[in-house]
Amino acid sequence: MQTPTPSSIKKIPVGLLRPGMYVQDVNCSWMDHPFVTNHFLVKDEKRVMEIRALGVRELYIDTGKGLDAADATPQDEVRREIDASMARIASEAQVEPERVPLEREIDHARHLHGEASRVVQGMLRDIRLGRQIEMEQVEPLVEKMVDSIFRNQDALLPLLRLKNHDDYTFKHSVSVCALLVSFARGLGLERGIIKEVAIGGLLHDVGKAKVPDEILNKPAKLTEAEFAQMKNHVVQSILILQNTPGISRIALDVAGQHHERYDGTGYPNKLKGGEISLYGRMGAIVDVYDAITSNRVYHKGMAPTAALGRLMEWSKYHFDPELVRAYVKSIGIYPTGSLVRLVSGRLGVVKEQHADKMMQPRVLVMYHAEKRYYLPPEEIDLAWSGCQDRIAGHEDFDAWEIDPKRWVG
Ligand SMILES: [Fe+2]
User: Does the pTM exceed 0.90?
Assistant: First the structure.
Protein backbone atom coordinates (compact mmCIF):
# COMPACT_ATOMS: atom_id res chain seq x y z
CA MET A 1 0.00 0.00 0.00
CA GLN A 2 2.97 2.34 0.63
CA THR A 3 6.24 2.70 -1.25
CA PRO A 4 9.29 1.19 0.47
CA THR A 5 11.61 3.63 2.23
CA PRO A 6 15.30 3.46 3.06
CA SER A 7 15.91 1.47 6.23
CA SER A 8 17.98 4.35 7.67
CA ILE A 9 14.72 5.85 8.93
CA LYS A 10 13.78 4.49 12.35
CA LYS A 11 11.24 5.21 15.02
CA ILE A 12 12.44 5.83 18.59
CA PRO A 13 10.75 6.66 21.89
CA VAL A 14 11.35 10.35 22.66
CA GLY A 15 13.39 9.36 25.73
CA LEU A 16 16.17 8.17 23.40
CA LEU A 17 16.42 11.45 21.49
CA ARG A 18 19.91 12.97 21.83
CA PRO A 19 21.81 15.91 20.32
CA GLY A 20 23.48 14.68 17.13
CA MET A 21 20.42 12.77 15.93
CA TYR A 22 18.68 13.89 12.77
CA VAL A 23 14.90 14.16 13.19
CA GLN A 24 13.19 12.92 10.04
CA ASP A 25 9.65 13.36 11.30
CA VAL A 26 8.40 14.81 14.59
CA ASN A 27 5.52 12.34 14.27
CA CYS A 28 2.76 14.78 14.97
CA SER A 29 0.78 17.06 12.70
CA TRP A 30 2.52 20.31 11.66
CA MET A 31 -0.08 22.31 13.54
CA ASP A 32 1.01 20.69 16.80
CA HIS A 33 4.61 21.93 16.63
CA PRO A 34 6.25 25.33 16.04
CA PHE A 35 8.93 24.18 13.55
CA VAL A 36 8.84 25.16 9.88
CA THR A 37 9.92 21.74 8.73
CA ASN A 38 9.55 18.27 10.12
CA HIS A 39 13.23 17.36 9.65
CA PHE A 40 16.30 18.89 11.24
CA LEU A 41 19.48 18.06 13.12
CA VAL A 42 19.08 18.15 16.89
CA LYS A 43 21.89 20.51 17.84
CA ASP A 44 21.56 20.70 21.61
CA GLU A 45 19.74 19.53 24.72
CA LYS A 46 17.45 22.58 24.54
CA ARG A 47 15.92 21.28 21.29
CA VAL A 48 15.41 17.83 22.90
CA MET A 49 13.50 19.43 25.79
CA GLU A 50 11.45 21.52 23.37
CA ILE A 51 10.34 18.40 21.45
CA ARG A 52 9.46 16.55 24.66
CA ALA A 53 7.40 19.52 25.84
CA LEU A 54 5.22 19.20 22.70
CA GLY A 55 3.86 15.89 23.98
CA VAL A 56 5.66 13.88 21.29
CA ARG A 57 6.09 10.29 22.56
CA GLU A 58 7.82 8.70 19.56
CA LEU A 59 9.50 10.18 16.52
CA TYR A 60 11.48 9.20 13.43
CA ILE A 61 15.21 9.73 13.04
CA ASP A 62 17.36 9.35 9.92
CA THR A 63 20.36 7.30 11.01
CA GLY A 64 22.07 8.05 7.70
CA LYS A 65 22.24 11.74 8.60
CA GLY A 66 22.81 11.58 12.35
CA LEU A 67 23.36 9.32 15.34
CA ASP A 68 21.58 5.95 15.64
CA ALA A 69 19.79 4.49 18.69
CA ALA A 70 19.93 0.92 19.95
CA ASP A 71 16.21 0.48 20.60
CA ALA A 72 14.86 1.72 17.27
CA THR A 73 12.17 0.26 15.00
CA PRO A 74 12.72 0.48 11.22
CA GLN A 75 10.03 2.57 9.51
CA ASP A 76 9.20 -0.29 7.13
CA GLU A 77 8.14 -2.40 10.08
CA VAL A 78 5.82 0.33 11.39
CA ARG A 79 4.26 0.71 7.91
CA ARG A 80 3.67 -3.01 7.54
CA GLU A 81 1.74 -3.00 10.81
CA ILE A 82 -0.40 -0.05 9.71
CA ASP A 83 -1.12 -1.65 6.33
CA ALA A 84 -2.25 -4.81 8.14
CA SER A 85 -4.62 -2.77 10.37
CA MET A 86 -6.03 -1.02 7.29
CA ALA A 87 -6.60 -4.36 5.57
CA ARG A 88 -8.48 -5.59 8.67
CA ILE A 89 -10.75 -2.53 8.56
CA ALA A 90 -11.42 -3.09 4.87
CA SER A 91 -12.39 -6.70 5.50
CA GLU A 92 -15.18 -5.71 7.92
CA ALA A 93 -18.27 -5.58 5.75
CA GLN A 94 -20.51 -2.55 6.00
CA VAL A 95 -23.98 -1.86 4.75
CA GLU A 96 -24.14 0.42 1.73
CA PRO A 97 -26.35 3.43 2.60
CA GLU A 98 -29.14 4.40 0.25
CA ARG A 99 -28.09 7.19 -2.09
CA VAL A 100 -28.96 9.12 -5.20
CA PRO A 101 -26.85 8.66 -8.37
CA LEU A 102 -23.60 10.61 -8.02
CA GLU A 103 -24.18 12.53 -11.26
CA ARG A 104 -27.39 13.96 -9.83
CA GLU A 105 -25.65 15.38 -6.73
CA ILE A 106 -22.44 16.78 -8.24
CA ASP A 107 -23.64 20.22 -9.42
CA HIS A 108 -25.49 20.78 -6.21
CA ALA A 109 -22.42 19.87 -4.15
CA ARG A 110 -20.23 22.21 -6.23
CA HIS A 111 -22.55 25.18 -5.60
CA LEU A 112 -22.82 24.32 -1.95
CA HIS A 113 -19.05 24.12 -1.51
CA GLY A 114 -18.69 27.57 -3.07
CA GLU A 115 -21.47 29.00 -0.93
CA ALA A 116 -20.08 27.49 2.28
CA SER A 117 -16.60 28.87 1.56
CA ARG A 118 -18.01 32.36 0.99
CA VAL A 119 -20.14 32.28 4.15
CA VAL A 120 -17.22 31.22 6.36
CA GLN A 121 -14.89 33.77 4.76
CA GLY A 122 -17.45 36.52 5.44
CA MET A 123 -17.99 35.28 8.98
CA LEU A 124 -14.26 35.42 9.81
CA ARG A 125 -14.13 38.95 8.38
CA ASP A 126 -17.10 39.96 10.53
CA ILE A 127 -15.52 38.50 13.68
CA ARG A 128 -12.36 40.50 12.99
CA LEU A 129 -14.56 43.58 12.92
CA GLY A 130 -16.01 42.62 16.30
CA ARG A 131 -19.38 41.43 14.96
CA GLN A 132 -21.29 38.41 16.23
CA ILE A 133 -21.83 35.13 14.39
CA GLU A 134 -25.33 34.93 12.96
CA MET A 135 -26.72 31.46 13.51
CA GLU A 136 -29.54 32.33 11.05
CA GLN A 137 -26.86 32.21 8.38
CA VAL A 138 -24.98 29.15 9.68
CA GLU A 139 -27.90 26.77 10.34
CA PRO A 140 -29.48 26.63 6.86
CA LEU A 141 -26.05 26.21 5.29
CA VAL A 142 -25.18 23.31 7.58
CA GLU A 143 -28.61 21.73 6.92
CA LYS A 144 -27.86 21.81 3.20
CA MET A 145 -24.45 20.20 3.75
CA VAL A 146 -25.96 17.43 5.86
CA ASP A 147 -28.62 16.85 3.17
CA SER A 148 -26.04 16.65 0.40
CA ILE A 149 -23.89 14.16 2.29
CA PHE A 150 -26.93 12.04 3.13
CA ARG A 151 -27.94 12.00 -0.54
CA ASN A 152 -24.47 10.96 -1.77
CA GLN A 153 -21.32 11.92 0.13
CA ASP A 154 -19.05 11.19 -2.83
CA ALA A 155 -20.21 14.43 -4.48
CA LEU A 156 -19.14 16.90 -1.77
CA LEU A 157 -16.25 15.14 -0.02
CA PRO A 158 -13.72 15.17 -2.91
CA LEU A 159 -14.22 18.93 -3.39
CA LEU A 160 -12.77 19.49 0.07
CA ARG A 161 -9.38 18.51 -1.30
CA LEU A 162 -9.30 21.54 -3.60
CA LYS A 163 -7.74 24.33 -1.58
CA ASN A 164 -5.32 27.12 -2.46
CA HIS A 165 -2.63 28.48 -0.19
CA ASP A 166 -4.59 31.65 0.51
CA ASP A 167 -8.00 30.16 1.23
CA TYR A 168 -6.89 27.49 3.70
CA THR A 169 -8.39 28.95 6.88
CA PHE A 170 -11.98 29.17 5.68
CA LYS A 171 -11.94 26.14 3.37
CA HIS A 172 -10.49 24.05 6.21
CA SER A 173 -13.56 24.95 8.30
CA VAL A 174 -15.88 23.85 5.49
CA SER A 175 -13.93 20.59 5.15
CA VAL A 176 -14.01 19.80 8.86
CA CYS A 177 -17.76 20.43 8.85
CA ALA A 178 -18.47 18.10 5.92
CA LEU A 179 -16.09 15.36 7.05
CA LEU A 180 -17.67 15.41 10.50
CA VAL A 181 -21.09 14.86 8.93
CA SER A 182 -19.84 11.75 7.16
CA PHE A 183 -18.07 10.55 10.32
CA ALA A 184 -21.10 11.16 12.59
CA ARG A 185 -23.39 9.47 10.09
CA GLY A 186 -21.07 6.45 9.97
CA LEU A 187 -21.25 6.25 13.77
CA GLY A 188 -25.03 6.10 13.51
CA LEU A 189 -25.65 9.36 15.42
CA GLU A 190 -29.07 10.86 15.00
CA ARG A 191 -29.67 13.60 12.50
CA GLY A 192 -30.25 16.40 15.08
CA ILE A 193 -26.92 15.60 16.74
CA ILE A 194 -25.13 15.34 13.39
CA LYS A 195 -26.26 18.88 12.59
CA GLU A 196 -24.85 20.24 15.86
CA VAL A 197 -21.54 18.40 15.34
CA ALA A 198 -21.40 19.93 11.86
CA ILE A 199 -22.03 23.45 13.22
CA GLY A 200 -19.16 22.86 15.65
CA GLY A 201 -16.97 21.83 12.72
CA LEU A 202 -17.84 24.89 10.67
CA LEU A 203 -17.11 27.21 13.61
CA HIS A 204 -14.26 25.34 15.31
CA ASP A 205 -11.52 27.73 14.23
CA VAL A 206 -13.38 31.07 14.43
CA GLY A 207 -10.87 32.07 17.13
CA LYS A 208 -8.23 32.24 14.39
CA ALA A 209 -9.81 35.56 13.40
CA LYS A 210 -8.23 36.91 16.59
CA VAL A 211 -4.74 35.62 15.76
CA PRO A 212 -2.62 38.08 13.71
CA ASP A 213 -2.04 37.01 10.10
CA GLU A 214 1.74 37.37 10.57
CA ILE A 215 1.58 34.49 13.04
CA LEU A 216 -0.99 32.38 11.15
CA ASN A 217 1.13 32.50 7.98
CA LYS A 218 4.62 32.95 9.41
CA PRO A 219 7.15 31.26 7.11
CA ALA A 220 9.62 30.57 9.95
CA LYS A 221 9.73 28.81 13.31
CA LEU A 222 7.25 30.36 15.74
CA THR A 223 8.74 31.81 18.91
CA GLU A 224 7.41 30.48 22.20
CA ALA A 225 5.16 33.53 22.57
CA GLU A 226 3.85 33.22 18.99
CA PHE A 227 3.15 29.50 19.39
CA ALA A 228 1.24 30.29 22.61
CA GLN A 229 -0.77 32.92 20.74
CA MET A 230 -1.48 30.45 17.93
CA LYS A 231 -2.72 27.85 20.41
CA ASN A 232 -4.84 30.50 22.07
CA HIS A 233 -7.16 30.43 19.03
CA VAL A 234 -9.07 27.65 20.80
CA VAL A 235 -9.76 29.82 23.87
CA GLN A 236 -10.80 32.60 21.49
CA SER A 237 -13.16 30.21 19.65
CA ILE A 238 -14.75 29.26 22.99
CA LEU A 239 -15.21 32.91 23.99
CA ILE A 240 -16.75 33.84 20.65
CA LEU A 241 -19.11 30.84 20.63
CA GLN A 242 -20.19 31.36 24.24
CA ASN A 243 -21.38 34.76 23.09
CA THR A 244 -23.24 33.34 20.12
CA PRO A 245 -26.98 33.00 20.83
CA GLY A 246 -28.33 29.58 19.85
CA ILE A 247 -25.04 27.66 20.01
CA SER A 248 -25.35 24.12 21.43
CA ARG A 249 -23.19 22.26 23.95
CA ILE A 250 -22.25 19.77 21.22
CA ALA A 251 -20.97 22.48 18.86
CA LEU A 252 -19.04 24.06 21.74
CA ASP A 253 -17.45 20.69 22.55
CA VAL A 254 -16.24 20.21 18.97
CA ALA A 255 -14.72 23.71 18.87
CA GLY A 256 -13.38 23.85 22.40
CA GLN A 257 -11.81 20.37 22.42
CA HIS A 258 -10.49 19.90 18.88
CA HIS A 259 -6.88 20.35 20.05
CA GLU A 260 -7.18 18.12 23.13
CA ARG A 261 -5.31 14.82 22.72
CA TYR A 262 -6.41 11.42 24.04
CA ASP A 263 -3.27 11.05 26.21
CA GLY A 264 -3.73 14.44 27.87
CA THR A 265 -0.99 16.25 25.91
CA GLY A 266 -3.32 18.62 24.04
CA TYR A 267 -4.67 22.06 24.85
CA PRO A 268 -6.19 24.22 26.24
CA ASN A 269 -7.22 22.02 29.20
CA LYS A 270 -5.00 18.91 28.84
CA LEU A 271 -8.12 16.72 28.98
CA LYS A 272 -7.56 12.97 28.76
CA GLY A 273 -9.50 9.97 27.36
CA GLY A 274 -13.16 10.08 28.36
CA GLU A 275 -12.78 13.58 29.81
CA ILE A 276 -12.89 14.68 26.18
CA SER A 277 -16.43 14.43 24.85
CA LEU A 278 -17.17 12.13 21.91
CA TYR A 279 -17.62 15.26 19.77
CA GLY A 280 -14.27 16.73 20.81
CA ARG A 281 -12.52 13.43 20.05
CA MET A 282 -14.18 13.34 16.62
CA GLY A 283 -13.25 16.97 15.95
CA ALA A 284 -9.58 16.29 16.75
CA ILE A 285 -9.36 13.42 14.24
CA VAL A 286 -11.04 15.29 11.40
CA ASP A 287 -9.15 18.54 12.07
CA VAL A 288 -5.77 16.79 11.85
CA TYR A 289 -6.81 14.73 8.81
CA ASP A 290 -7.80 17.81 6.83
CA ALA A 291 -4.76 19.80 7.98
CA ILE A 292 -2.20 17.19 6.95
CA THR A 293 -3.84 16.46 3.60
CA SER A 294 -3.83 20.18 2.66
CA ASN A 295 -1.00 22.06 0.94
CA ARG A 296 0.19 25.12 2.81
CA VAL A 297 2.97 27.44 1.79
CA TYR A 298 5.55 25.48 3.82
CA HIS A 299 3.85 22.10 4.18
CA LYS A 300 3.04 19.73 1.37
CA GLY A 301 -0.24 17.92 1.89
CA MET A 302 -0.17 14.12 2.22
CA ALA A 303 -2.21 11.74 0.09
CA PRO A 304 -5.44 10.86 1.99
CA THR A 305 -4.54 7.17 2.41
CA ALA A 306 -1.14 8.12 3.84
CA ALA A 307 -2.84 10.56 6.20
CA LEU A 308 -5.23 7.87 7.45
CA GLY A 309 -2.17 5.69 8.12
CA ARG A 310 -0.63 8.48 10.20
CA LEU A 311 -3.87 8.90 12.17
CA MET A 312 -3.85 5.18 12.93
CA GLU A 313 -0.23 5.43 14.05
CA TRP A 314 -0.88 8.51 16.20
CA SER A 315 -3.97 6.92 17.73
CA LYS A 316 -1.57 4.99 19.93
CA TYR A 317 -1.36 8.18 22.00
CA HIS A 318 -3.21 11.13 20.51
CA PHE A 319 -6.58 9.89 19.30
CA ASP A 320 -9.28 7.48 20.37
CA PRO A 321 -8.23 4.35 18.39
CA GLU A 322 -11.79 3.03 18.01
CA LEU A 323 -12.92 6.36 16.59
CA VAL A 324 -10.01 6.50 14.14
CA ARG A 325 -11.09 3.08 12.83
CA ALA A 326 -14.67 4.32 12.51
CA TYR A 327 -13.43 7.41 10.68
CA VAL A 328 -11.50 5.31 8.16
CA LYS A 329 -14.68 3.29 7.57
CA SER A 330 -16.74 6.43 7.01
CA ILE A 331 -14.54 7.90 4.24
CA GLY A 332 -12.87 4.72 2.95
CA ILE A 333 -9.24 3.61 2.79
CA TYR A 334 -8.94 5.29 -0.62
CA PRO A 335 -11.13 8.35 -0.01
CA THR A 336 -13.07 9.74 -2.96
CA GLY A 337 -10.84 12.17 -4.87
CA SER A 338 -7.66 10.14 -4.14
CA LEU A 339 -5.23 9.18 -6.88
CA VAL A 340 -4.62 5.42 -7.01
CA ARG A 341 -2.42 3.10 -9.04
CA LEU A 342 -3.96 -0.08 -10.39
CA VAL A 343 -2.06 -3.33 -10.87
CA SER A 344 -2.40 -2.80 -14.63
CA GLY A 345 -0.07 0.21 -14.25
CA ARG A 346 -2.83 2.74 -14.83
CA LEU A 347 -3.54 5.70 -12.54
CA GLY A 348 -7.02 6.90 -11.74
CA VAL A 349 -9.06 9.09 -9.41
CA VAL A 350 -11.49 7.46 -6.99
CA LYS A 351 -14.98 8.63 -7.97
CA GLU A 352 -17.36 6.67 -5.78
CA GLN A 353 -17.11 4.27 -2.85
CA HIS A 354 -18.83 0.99 -2.17
CA ALA A 355 -19.16 0.79 1.64
CA ASP A 356 -19.31 -3.00 1.45
CA LYS A 357 -16.29 -3.28 -0.90
CA MET A 358 -13.89 -0.64 0.38
CA MET A 359 -10.91 -1.75 -1.71
CA GLN A 360 -12.91 -1.76 -4.96
CA PRO A 361 -14.28 1.74 -5.60
CA ARG A 362 -15.40 3.22 -8.92
CA VAL A 363 -12.31 4.85 -10.50
CA LEU A 364 -11.80 7.27 -13.40
CA VAL A 365 -8.68 5.93 -15.11
CA MET A 366 -6.72 8.51 -17.12
CA TYR A 367 -2.93 7.99 -17.02
CA HIS A 368 -0.46 5.20 -17.69
CA ALA A 369 2.22 5.18 -15.00
CA GLU A 370 4.71 2.99 -16.84
CA LYS A 371 4.31 4.52 -20.28
CA ARG A 372 3.88 7.98 -18.75
CA TYR A 373 1.13 9.34 -20.92
CA TYR A 374 -2.51 10.29 -20.55
CA LEU A 375 -5.11 7.73 -21.57
CA PRO A 376 -8.60 8.49 -22.85
CA PRO A 377 -10.51 8.84 -19.53
CA GLU A 378 -12.50 5.72 -18.73
CA GLU A 379 -14.62 5.03 -15.69
CA ILE A 380 -14.28 1.52 -14.30
CA ASP A 381 -16.00 -0.12 -11.36
CA LEU A 382 -13.47 -2.30 -9.58
CA ALA A 383 -16.33 -4.05 -7.76
CA TRP A 384 -17.81 -5.31 -11.05
CA SER A 385 -17.40 -9.07 -11.15
CA GLY A 386 -15.85 -9.00 -14.65
CA CYS A 387 -13.23 -6.40 -13.73
CA GLN A 388 -9.69 -7.77 -13.93
CA ASP A 389 -7.96 -4.78 -12.34
CA ARG A 390 -7.49 -3.84 -8.69
CA ILE A 391 -5.78 -1.15 -6.59
CA ALA A 392 -2.03 -1.57 -6.03
CA GLY A 393 -1.64 1.52 -3.81
CA HIS A 394 -2.21 5.24 -3.39
CA GLU A 395 -0.28 7.87 -5.35
CA ASP A 396 0.50 11.55 -5.06
CA PHE A 397 -0.88 14.00 -7.65
CA ASP A 398 2.22 16.24 -7.40
CA ALA A 399 4.65 13.38 -7.95
CA TRP A 400 3.01 12.70 -11.33
CA GLU A 401 2.44 16.39 -12.10
CA ILE A 402 -1.25 15.66 -12.49
CA ASP A 403 -3.50 18.61 -11.65
CA PRO A 404 -6.18 17.39 -9.20
CA LYS A 405 -8.47 20.29 -10.17
CA ARG A 406 -8.84 18.76 -13.63
CA TRP A 407 -9.95 15.37 -12.35
CA VAL A 408 -11.54 15.86 -8.93
CA GLY A 409 -15.07 17.17 -8.50
FE1 LIG B 1 -7.72 24.66 15.40
Answer: yes
